[in-house]
Design a protein that fits this description.
CATH topology of the domain at 2-220: Rossmann fold
Number of helices: 11
Bound molecules: adenosine-5'-diphosphate, magnesium ion
Structural class: alpha/beta
Largest sheet: 6 strands, mixed
Radius of gyration: 25 Å
CATH architecture of the domain at 2-220: 3-Layer(aba) Sandwich
Shape: globular
Helix content: 25-40%
Strand content: 15-25%
CATH superfamily of the domain at 2-220: P-loop containing nucleotide triphosphate hydrolases
């Protein structure tokens, strides 16, 4: 699907090549991380796949086309098969969400009817239904990136290239975007993602191609980031869980202090034992919560558990905010993309 044959790329006016004898092949349906420090050549690879750049030596073959022999006239048609998203979203600031996505179809001469059908579909796919009339500045960073992903997908490309798509997003939002990309891939689209962020590369255990100074130093089927020293590690989900445990423990601590001052707390509602849980196991599917809360109990102190009713926790949205609630994943609707 994508093949680099001994590709060397020298930019005009530079001495050291940006890529040296890079050689790899990506199969249809793969999810590949291109990793490496800034300046290692990740973006250059993606630019070569898009034929925004051409190799100085070697050959790039994409979707069966040798890009050396692809005429300039045919490049726009070729690119319809390749969606791309970038760190800086690149949305049209004065156009709505709908218009940003529709624009891509309109320039390819798609009919009005097709645009009216395809745009809402792809916006639902990325979890943006209901926001089609907003302007980019009325959206969060994560939502803006979703618009960019919708725009990249609306042509139903076979390949999605993502150049540091989470580079401008906070860790939580980045994880949501990663999930979305993983689901798009699960729908059959080949995804090549350049990143220098270690967290989800390690978490996802997908193929990793690592570049260092333009040379390919690793190609691993189910890789992690490798040497993580000095790299900011994004909080993966397990750590999200840990944060939830810490937050819950803090809540319990406060409750315990209150009890110590005011004496035993009456059950919030209902007869003893009904609709109540002891303070620790608020969420039966989170054994770590029980353990962590239990560990916080010091021997000899008042460790009587405080009744916390489940409905109460639900009403406060606490479980949700602490990451303990059953997740309703809005990306669930992502279906096949090609
Ligand atoms: P990465 O995306 O991993 O940060 P790049 O592919 O952007 O790496 O850059 C690789 C090397 O090529 C860097 O040394 C960079 O300065 C150089 N480079 C990238 N684009 C150009 C360009 N258009 N002209 C000259 N040098 C470039
Ligand atoms: Mg780059």
């Amino acid at each position: 699907m994508i093949r680099f044959e001994n590709v060397t790329k020298r930019y005009r006016g530079t001495t050291k090549p940006a890529l040296s004898a890079v050689d790899f092949e990506v199969q249809r349906g793969e999810f590949v991380f291109l990793v490496g420090a800034s300046g290692s050549g990740k973006s250059s690879c993606l630019q070569l796949i898009l034929r925004a750049e051409t190799p100085s030596e070697g050959r790039v073959v994409v979707l069966g086309r040798d890009l050396r022999t692809l005429s300039n006239r045919k490049v726009p048609y070729f690119r319809r098969h390749i969606g791309s998203v970038f760190q800086d979203f690149r949305l049209l600031p004065n156009k709505t969400v709908h218009q940003n996505v529709a624009f891509t179809l309109q320039v390819t001469g798609a009919s009005r009817g097709f645009v009216q059908q395809a745009v809402p579909e792809v916006l639902a796919l990325v979890g943006l239904d209901g926001k089609e009339k907003r302007l980019p500045h009325e959206l969060s960073g994560g939502e803006q990136q979703r618009v960019a992903i919708a725009r990249a997908l609306v042509n139903r490309p076979q390949v999605l290239l993502a150049d540091e798509p989470t580079g401008n997003l906070d860790p939580g939002t980045s994880i949501d975007i990663m999930r979305l990309l993983a689901r798009i891939n699960a729908g059959g689209t080949t995804v090549v993602m350049a990143t220098h962020e270690a967290g989800f590369v390690d978490q996802m255990q997908r193929r990793v191609i690592e570049l260092r100074g333009g040379e390919m130093v690793r190609d691993e089927r189910h890789g992690g980031y490798g040497d993580r020293s000095g790299l900011p590690v994004l909080a993966p989900e397990v750590e999200k869980g840990a944060a939830a445990v810490a937050a819950l423990t803090a809540v319990l601590e406060v409750q315990r202090e209150v009890t110590n001052i005011t004496g035993p707390v009456e059950p919030l509602r209902g007869p003893e034992g009904s609709e109540q849980v002891s303070a620790a196991p608020v969420e039966p599917t989170s054994p770590s919560v029980t353990t962590a809360a239990a560990e916080r109990r010091e021997p000899g102190t008042n460790t009587r558990s405080i009744p916390v009713s489940n409905p109460e926790v639900d009403a406060l949205g606490l479980a949700d905010r602490l990451g303990l609630a059953e997740k309703k994943d809005r990306d669930d609707e992502v279906g096949p993309t090609s």
